[in-house]
């Protein structure tokens, strides 16, 4: 006689608590499929980020900086603009980069896990965030290297030696290498004011998050695309059919969604404005950095969400 067959125990279904906390996602590829589809994009983003970092860290300004050196120069408009004291940054470069990528990525991953429930959609969002930040990093680093500009504290770290003016040229323009006595590293850093990298990264990351919020919650969508909520006619105290005005009223976006949209932008503004408060950038550097970051956030969003 054949041996008795033993039946395998049935798999225990996950608890309701586990289903709520870890609901899972659909359309999840295998690891091999994921790498095959995305290795080039990931490698490109890493190379852009690394290239931007190396240029910012080691690149010497390409354009020669000349400025006047003469007694009482600190009382002139030039001295007032570039003679502010050096102060430590409120938000460092690594902290700014980490927050500008990490916080939007965590928020989009959480919404992807508990609301969207789609791996491909969440992957597109985080990949688009990488598009925006990595390209912004390289773009602004190239501008700092090629164009640049004097930071508000330039004269403080340059510590120029006073040159006796001659009779024919009382305010001759001098190169930084000729008159600066400060640390070469600090003098190089002080010539990279344009554009603000903090501002560009903040608006690239949080600007992308704001666009993502608008897409998922339909904050500025057309009325037919936005979730209407409960129908007014279903209420017990309303028996008549909605008028066109009532229908338009029921389709409007709630006020909390406006707060949801502007919160990422507020964080970007705080990071950007901190560079004015700590004296590392001029206001125009911050504004131009914000425009650069916002432009790349919009382009990256359109690339990953083309419909």
From TrEMBL:
InterPro entries per the UniProt record, alphabetical: PAP-like (IPR043216), PAP2/HPO (IPR000326), PAP2/HPO_sf (IPR036938)
Domain (Phosphatidic acid phosphatase type 2/haloperoxidase): residue spans on this chain: 124-301
Keywords: Membrane, Oxidoreductase, Peroxidase, Transmembrane, Transmembrane helix
Chain segments carrying region Disordered: 228-252
Gene Ontology cellular-component annotations: membrane
Molecular function GO labels: peroxidase activity; phosphatidate phosphatase activity
Membrane topology recorded in Swiss-Prot or TrEMBL: Multi-pass membrane protein
Protein family according to the UniProt entry: Belongs to the PA-phosphatase related phosphoesterase family.
Cited Gene3D superfamilies: Phosphatidic acid phosphatase type 2/haloperoxidase (1.20.144.10)
The keyword Transmembrane is assigned to this record: yes
Organism annotation: Periconia macrospinosa
Superkingdom to which the source organism belongs: Eukaryota
Entry-linked PANTHER family: LIPID PHOSPHATE PHOSPHATASE (PTHR10165), PHOSPHATIDIC ACID PHOSPHATASE BETA (PTHR10165:SF84)
Descriptive protein name: Acid phosphatase/Vanadium-dependent haloperoxidase
GO biological process: phospholipid dephosphorylation; phospholipid metabolic process
Residues passing through the membrane, by range: 90-116, 128-147, 200-222, 256-274, 286-305
Localization per Swiss-Prot or TrEMBL: Membrane
Span of the signal peptide: none
A Pfam family the protein falls into: PAP2
